[in-house]
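Title: Comparing notes on inverse folding

I've been comparing how different people in this forum approach sequence design from structure. To keep things fair, I'm posting one structure and asking everyone to reply with a full sequence. Here's the target:
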Protein backbone atom coordinates (compact mmCIF):
# COMPACT_ATOMS: atom_id res chain seq x y z
CA UNK A 1 0.00 0.00 0.00
CA UNK A 2 1.44 3.36 -1.04
CA UNK A 3 1.88 5.96 1.72
CA UNK A 4 -0.71 8.74 1.39
CA UNK A 5 1.92 11.45 0.98
CA UNK A 6 3.34 9.65 -2.06
CA UNK A 7 0.07 9.34 -3.97
CA UNK A 8 -0.33 11.72 -6.92
CA UNK A 9 -3.49 10.13 -8.34
CA UNK A 10 -5.71 7.31 -7.11
CA UNK A 11 -8.09 6.15 -9.85
CA UNK A 12 -10.38 3.14 -10.23
CA UNK A 13 -7.81 0.94 -12.03
CA UNK A 14 -4.41 2.35 -11.10
CA UNK A 15 -2.52 4.58 -8.65
CA UNK A 16 0.23 7.04 -9.58
CA UNK A 17 2.85 7.51 -6.87
CA UNK A 18 5.88 9.74 -6.49
CA UNK A 19 9.22 7.98 -6.77
CA UNK A 20 12.51 8.83 -5.10
CA UNK A 21 13.39 10.74 -8.28
CA UNK A 22 11.20 13.76 -9.09
CA UNK A 23 11.63 13.04 -12.81
CA UNK A 24 9.97 9.63 -12.47
CA UNK A 25 6.67 8.21 -11.24
CA UNK A 26 5.47 4.76 -10.20
CA UNK A 27 2.19 3.44 -11.60
CA UNK A 28 0.55 0.51 -9.83
CA UNK A 29 -2.34 -1.32 -11.47
CA UNK A 30 -5.32 -2.69 -9.56
CA UNK A 31 -7.36 -5.88 -9.90
CA UNK A 32 -10.32 -3.85 -11.12
CA UNK A 33 -12.17 -3.23 -14.39
CA UNK A 34 -14.02 0.08 -14.55
CA UNK A 35 -17.35 0.12 -16.40
CA UNK A 36 -17.61 3.72 -17.62
CA UNK A 37 -21.22 3.38 -18.78
CA UNK A 38 -22.46 2.28 -15.35
CA UNK A 39 -19.80 4.04 -13.26
CA UNK A 40 -19.00 0.86 -11.35
CA UNK A 41 -15.82 -1.01 -10.44
CA UNK A 42 -15.68 -4.74 -11.21
CA UNK A 43 -13.13 -6.74 -9.15
CA UNK A 44 -11.12 -9.11 -11.36
CA UNK A 45 -8.41 -11.46 -10.10
CA UNK A 46 -4.92 -10.87 -11.56
CA UNK A 47 -6.16 -7.96 -13.69
CA UNK A 48 -3.47 -5.60 -12.31
CA UNK A 49 -0.76 -8.13 -13.11
CA UNK A 50 -1.94 -8.65 -16.68
CA UNK A 51 -2.25 -4.88 -17.24
CA UNK A 52 1.25 -4.00 -16.02
CA UNK A 53 2.92 -6.88 -17.88
CA UNK A 54 1.14 -6.18 -21.19
CA UNK A 55 1.70 -2.40 -20.97
CA UNK A 56 5.42 -2.88 -20.36
CA UNK A 57 5.77 -5.33 -23.26
CA UNK A 58 3.82 -3.24 -25.79
CA UNK A 59 5.69 -0.05 -24.93
CA UNK A 60 8.99 -1.91 -25.11
CA UNK A 61 7.98 -3.23 -28.51
CA UNK A 62 7.05 0.22 -29.79
CA UNK A 63 10.40 1.53 -28.52
CA UNK A 64 12.11 -0.94 -30.83
CA UNK A 65 10.41 0.94 -33.68
CA UNK A 66 11.63 4.32 -32.41
CA UNK A 67 8.33 5.31 -30.80
CA UNK A 68 9.37 7.23 -27.68
CA UNK A 69 7.20 6.50 -24.66
CA UNK A 70 7.23 7.05 -20.92
CA UNK A 71 7.65 3.47 -19.66
CA UNK A 72 11.11 2.81 -18.19
CA UNK A 73 10.81 -0.62 -16.63
CA UNK A 74 8.67 -3.05 -14.68
CA UNK A 75 9.69 -2.78 -11.00
CA UNK A 76 7.09 -5.13 -9.48
CA UNK A 77 4.51 -7.53 -10.89
CA UNK A 78 1.85 -4.79 -10.97
CA UNK A 79 4.02 -1.67 -10.93
CA UNK A 80 5.83 0.33 -13.62
CA UNK A 81 8.49 3.01 -13.32
CA UNK A 82 7.77 5.79 -15.84
CA UNK A 83 9.04 9.19 -16.88
CA UNK A 84 7.14 12.04 -15.24
CA UNK A 85 6.01 13.70 -18.48
CA UNK A 86 3.82 16.78 -18.71
CA UNK A 87 0.50 15.25 -19.72
CA UNK A 88 -1.51 16.55 -22.70
CA UNK A 89 -5.16 16.30 -21.50
CA UNK A 90 -6.51 14.61 -24.63
CA UNK A 91 -7.19 10.98 -25.60
CA UNK A 92 -6.69 10.22 -29.29
CA UNK A 93 -8.84 7.24 -30.31
CA UNK A 94 -8.02 5.75 -33.70
CA UNK A 95 -10.65 3.51 -35.32
CA UNK A 96 -9.46 0.84 -37.77
CA UNK A 97 -12.47 -1.46 -38.00
CA UNK A 98 -16.14 -1.08 -37.09
CA UNK A 99 -17.80 -2.77 -34.14
CA UNK A 100 -21.59 -3.03 -34.07
CA UNK A 101 -21.76 0.27 -32.17
CA UNK A 102 -19.24 2.21 -34.25
CA UNK A 103 -20.68 0.89 -37.53
CA UNK A 104 -23.72 3.10 -36.95
CA UNK A 105 -21.55 6.08 -36.04
CA UNK A 106 -19.24 5.84 -39.05
CA UNK A 107 -21.71 4.34 -41.56
CA UNK A 108 -19.55 1.27 -42.10
CA UNK A 109 -20.77 -2.32 -41.90
CA UNK A 110 -19.86 -4.26 -38.77
CA UNK A 111 -16.31 -5.67 -39.00
CA UNK A 112 -15.71 -3.44 -42.02
CA UNK A 113 -12.51 -1.49 -42.50
CA UNK A 114 -12.69 2.24 -41.81
CA UNK A 115 -10.86 4.07 -44.60
CA UNK A 116 -9.30 6.47 -44.04
CA UNK A 117 -8.78 5.66 -40.38
CA UNK A 118 -10.73 7.97 -38.09
CA UNK A 119 -9.24 9.67 -35.04
CA UNK A 120 -11.61 10.95 -32.36
CA UNK A 121 -10.48 13.42 -29.71
CA UNK A 122 -11.57 13.35 -26.07
CA UNK A 123 -10.72 15.99 -23.50
CA UNK A 124 -9.67 14.50 -20.14
CA UNK A 125 -11.14 16.30 -17.13
CA UNK A 126 -11.06 14.76 -13.65
CA UNK A 127 -10.83 11.28 -15.14
CA UNK A 128 -13.82 11.78 -17.45
CA UNK A 129 -13.73 11.93 -21.26
CA UNK A 130 -15.64 14.49 -23.33
CA UNK A 131 -15.70 14.24 -27.14
CA UNK A 132 -14.35 17.38 -28.79
CA UNK A 133 -13.92 18.61 -32.35
CA UNK A 134 -10.57 19.26 -34.01
CA UNK A 135 -11.20 23.03 -33.81
CA UNK A 136 -11.42 22.78 -30.00
CA UNK A 137 -8.33 20.59 -29.94
CA UNK A 138 -6.27 23.37 -31.50
CA UNK A 139 -6.81 25.38 -28.32
CA UNK A 140 -5.22 22.62 -26.22
CA UNK A 141 -2.50 21.26 -28.50
CA UNK A 142 -0.11 23.47 -30.56
CA UNK A 143 -0.10 22.69 -34.29
CA UNK A 144 3.51 21.42 -34.26
CA UNK A 145 2.64 18.95 -31.49
CA UNK A 146 -0.61 17.90 -33.16
CA UNK A 147 1.23 17.04 -36.37
CA UNK A 148 3.69 14.85 -34.46
CA UNK A 149 0.89 13.21 -32.49
CA UNK A 150 -1.03 12.22 -35.62
CA UNK A 151 2.10 10.67 -37.10
CA UNK A 152 2.76 8.70 -33.92
CA UNK A 153 -0.89 7.56 -33.81
CA UNK A 154 -0.79 6.17 -37.36
CA UNK A 155 2.65 4.64 -36.92
CA UNK A 156 1.82 2.99 -33.57
CA UNK A 157 -1.54 1.73 -34.80
CA UNK A 158 0.15 0.16 -37.81
CA UNK A 159 2.79 -1.55 -35.71
CA UNK A 160 0.34 -2.85 -33.10
CA UNK A 161 -2.23 -3.93 -35.70
CA UNK A 162 0.34 -6.22 -37.30
CA UNK A 163 1.67 -7.29 -33.89
CA UNK A 164 -1.78 -8.47 -32.76
CA UNK A 165 -2.64 -10.02 -36.12
CA UNK A 166 0.39 -12.28 -35.80
CA UNK A 167 -1.07 -13.38 -32.46
CA UNK A 168 -4.48 -14.05 -34.02
CA UNK A 169 -6.25 -10.90 -32.82
CA UNK A 170 -7.80 -8.09 -34.86
CA UNK A 171 -7.35 -4.55 -33.59
CA UNK A 172 -10.53 -2.50 -34.03
CA UNK A 173 -9.64 0.66 -32.12
CA UNK A 174 -7.04 1.93 -29.69
CA UNK A 175 -6.64 4.93 -27.39
CA UNK A 176 -3.39 6.88 -27.27
CA UNK A 177 -2.31 9.56 -24.83
CA UNK A 178 0.69 11.87 -25.07
CA UNK A 179 2.88 14.09 -22.96
CA UNK A 180 5.90 16.33 -23.20
CA UNK A 181 9.30 15.25 -21.90
CA UNK A 182 12.12 17.77 -22.33
CA UNK A 183 9.73 19.61 -24.68
CA UNK A 184 9.44 16.53 -26.94
CA UNK A 185 6.20 14.64 -27.62
CA UNK A 186 6.18 11.09 -26.23
CA UNK A 187 3.56 8.37 -25.94
CA UNK A 188 2.06 8.07 -22.45
CA UNK A 189 -1.15 6.53 -21.17
CA UNK A 190 -2.17 2.93 -20.75
CA UNK A 191 -1.54 0.56 -23.68
CA UNK A 192 -3.61 -2.20 -22.12
CA UNK A 193 -6.64 -4.31 -23.09
CA UNK A 194 -8.72 -1.65 -21.29
CA UNK A 195 -7.81 0.94 -23.92
CA UNK A 196 -8.26 -1.04 -27.11
CA UNK A 197 -10.86 -3.17 -28.86
CA UNK A 198 -9.57 -6.61 -29.80
CA UNK A 199 -11.30 -9.61 -31.40
CA UNK A 200 -9.93 -13.13 -31.12
CA UNK A 201 -9.68 -14.59 -34.63
CA UNK A 202 -9.97 -18.16 -33.34
CA UNK A 203 -13.27 -17.71 -31.47
CA UNK A 204 -14.52 -14.62 -33.36
CA UNK A 205 -15.27 -13.09 -29.94
CA UNK A 206 -14.10 -9.83 -28.41
CA UNK A 207 -11.59 -10.02 -25.57
CA UNK A 208 -10.20 -7.57 -23.02
CA UNK A 209 -12.45 -4.99 -21.36
CA UNK A 210 -14.69 -4.66 -24.43
CA UNK A 211 -15.24 -8.42 -24.52
CA UNK A 212 -15.94 -8.60 -20.77
CA UNK A 213 -18.50 -5.79 -20.79
CA UNK A 214 -20.22 -7.20 -23.91
CA UNK A 215 -20.39 -10.76 -22.57
CA UNK A 216 -18.07 -12.28 -25.18
CA UNK A 217 -15.69 -13.64 -22.53
CA UNK A 218 -15.79 -14.28 -18.79
CA UNK A 219 -13.79 -12.97 -15.84
CA UNK A 220 -10.00 -12.83 -16.10
CA UNK A 221 -10.05 -15.10 -19.17
CA UNK A 222 -10.71 -11.88 -21.11
CA UNK A 223 -7.21 -10.69 -20.20
CA UNK A 224 -5.43 -14.01 -19.72
CA UNK A 225 -5.85 -15.00 -23.39
CA UNK A 226 -4.12 -11.78 -24.51
CA UNK A 227 -1.34 -12.15 -21.95
CA UNK A 228 -0.72 -15.79 -22.88
CA UNK A 229 -0.35 -15.09 -26.61
CA UNK A 230 1.90 -12.09 -26.06
CA UNK A 231 4.17 -13.94 -23.65
CA UNK A 232 4.11 -17.27 -25.48
CA UNK A 233 7.51 -16.33 -26.91
CA UNK A 234 10.45 -14.31 -25.71
CA UNK A 235 10.81 -10.67 -26.68
CA UNK A 236 12.36 -10.59 -30.17
CA UNK A 237 11.48 -7.32 -31.90
CA UNK A 238 14.27 -7.81 -34.43
CA UNK A 239 12.59 -11.05 -35.56
CA UNK A 240 9.28 -9.34 -36.33
CA UNK A 241 10.51 -5.94 -37.40
CA UNK A 242 10.09 -4.96 -41.02
CA UNK A 243 13.61 -4.64 -42.36
CA UNK A 244 14.39 -1.06 -43.26
CA UNK A 245 17.23 0.12 -45.45
CA UNK A 246 20.10 1.89 -43.72
CA UNK A 247 19.73 5.65 -43.70
CA UNK A 248 15.93 5.65 -43.93
CA UNK A 249 14.62 8.93 -42.56
CA UNK A 250 12.09 8.78 -39.73
CA UNK A 251 9.49 10.55 -41.89
CA UNK A 252 9.88 7.82 -44.50
CA UNK A 253 9.51 5.21 -41.78
CA UNK A 254 6.23 6.78 -40.67
CA UNK A 255 4.91 6.83 -44.24
CA UNK A 256 5.97 3.21 -44.68
CA UNK A 257 4.02 2.21 -41.58
CA UNK A 258 0.94 4.10 -42.78
CA UNK A 259 1.15 2.02 -45.96
CA UNK A 260 1.71 -1.11 -43.89
CA UNK A 261 -1.44 -0.36 -41.90
CA UNK A 262 -3.48 -0.22 -45.10
CA UNK A 263 -1.84 -3.43 -46.36
CA UNK A 264 -2.63 -5.13 -43.05
CA UNK A 265 -6.30 -4.24 -43.24
CA UNK A 266 -6.89 -4.79 -46.95
CA UNK A 267 -5.91 -7.16 -49.70
CA UNK A 268 -4.08 -6.19 -52.86
CA UNK A 269 -7.30 -5.06 -54.54
CA UNK A 270 -8.51 -3.16 -51.47
CA UNK A 271 -10.97 -5.85 -50.35
CA UNK A 272 -11.24 -6.76 -46.69
CA UNK A 273 -9.13 -9.73 -45.64
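Reply #1:
Here's my take.
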Amino acid sequence: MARKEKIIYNGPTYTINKSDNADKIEIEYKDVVYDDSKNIEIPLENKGYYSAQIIERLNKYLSSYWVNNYVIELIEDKKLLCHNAEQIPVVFRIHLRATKESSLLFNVQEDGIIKPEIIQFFHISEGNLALIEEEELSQMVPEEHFSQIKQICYKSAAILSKYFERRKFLLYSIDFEFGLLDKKVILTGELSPDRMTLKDLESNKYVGKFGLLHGDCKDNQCYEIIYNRIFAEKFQPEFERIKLQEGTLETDVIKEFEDELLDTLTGENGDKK
